[in-house]
Design brief:
It is a single chain. With 96 residues, this protein is of the alpha+beta class. Helices cover 39% and strands 26% of the residues. A four-stranded mixed β-sheet has the order 1-4-3-2. Strand 2 and strand 3 form a beta hairpin. Helix 1 runs antiparallel to helix 2. It is globular and about 40 Å long.
Length: 96
């Protein structure tokens, strides 16, 4: 059994996550935003128990989880916590 690791949100992760939710609410619907939020919560719960669930990103110190076709989560690992770094739009080029 794996030890569950604490999840820490970086300020950038919080900002990009809230921006995505705001965009979904304003341009799609509250239902779509809630479905996205549920996917993120489910993923974070899985990550806390299986911290290497997602493959390494281009930046080898980080890992990348594809949440939807459009959005990915970049996170880093330490010995005692997982840091959510940023939520990215997959349609643009990134250094992650």
């Amino acid at each position: 059994m794996h030890k569950s690791l604490a999840i820490i949100w970086s300020p950038l992760a919080e900002e990009t996550y809230l921006n995505i939710l705001e965009y979904l609410i304003n341009n799609w619907s509250l239902d779509i935003a809630l479905k996205f939020d549920n996917k993120v919560v489910t993923l974070i719960n899985k990550l806390s128990k299986h911290n290497k669930l997602c493959p390494k990103s281009a930046n080898k110190n980080l890992r990348k989880c594809v949440i939807t076709r459009q959005i990915s989560l970049i996170y880093g690992l330490t010995s005692n916590h997982i840091e959510l770094v940023v939520f990215l739009d997959n349609r643009f080029q990134h250094n992650f």
